[in-house]
Fold this protein.
Amino acid sequence: MPARKAALALAAAALVAVPLAAGCSTAQKAVDCARLGIEISDDVDDLQHSVTDTASDTDNANKILDNLEKDTKKLKDKSSNVDVGKALDHLEKAVGNVRDALRDDKTPDLTPVTDAAGELSKVCTSK
């Protein structure tokens, strides 16, 4: 996970240097995507720690899921990119599945959440 955060941070820094000819709104959207992608990645890391370190602490996991949903909504509101939208849809579905597992007192499978966050990282950092 730290490598993904580093890649997103570097991508965000590189996007700040996007030439003005690319258009300010396009550059700003890319920076917003990268910044919120980092926040989502942090949320996913927190969720992994919460579920693996304290499996019985569903309150904390639910708070983290709330943060993931909030950050996902923020990015959806800021982006009109189809690929970003698809990645966010996958993330929302994965978060819903984790909520269902926690509600049913099952250990959630976080693989779809991490996969969706990785997908989001790719689309936020690609040109």
Summary: Helices lie at 2-16, 24-53, 58-78, 82-103, 111-125. The two ends are 22 Å apart (CA to CA).
